[in-house]
Amino acid sequence: MKIITASLDTARRLDLWLHRRLGAPYGVLLSIGLVIEIVRQGRELAEHVSAGELRHLWPLLLDVALLLHTAGALRERWEKHLVGRGPLV
Fold first, then answer.
1. Does residue 89 surpass a pLDDT of 60?
2. 19-42: string of b/e by CB count within 10 Å (b at 16+)?
3. pTM greater than the 0.70 cutoff
């Protein structure tokens, strides 16, 4: 359990560091990358998967969930910025 906690703490620190360094474009870049990956996975899914192999849909659904999370976090930061005129971090 310590390894998981340490990994999550490290990931959070890295995420905060990237937000401080890159600002709002960080969230936008993540969103763009996820959209590109979703489109790629969707095309691959349509070309290679039959109706009985829906297990291949999980990575695509996970990326959609990550995109929604990233967009929601970016929206929260934007609202805080507009209200308090604080940084978009």
1. no
2. beeeeeebbeebbeebeeebeebe
3. no
pLDDT tens readout for residues 8-60: 788 888 888 988 898 888 888 888 988 998 898 888 887 777 766 767 777 88
Closest CA to 73 of 14, 11, 21, 31: 31
Burial class, 63, CB count within 10 angstroms (exposed 0-12 / middle 13-18 / buried 19+) = buried
Print burial letters for 51-61: b (CB count within 10 Å at least 16), e (below 16): eeeeeeeeebe
Residue 56 DSSP symbol: G
Q: Is 73 exposed, middle or buried (0-12, 13-18, 19+ CB in 10 A)?
A: middle
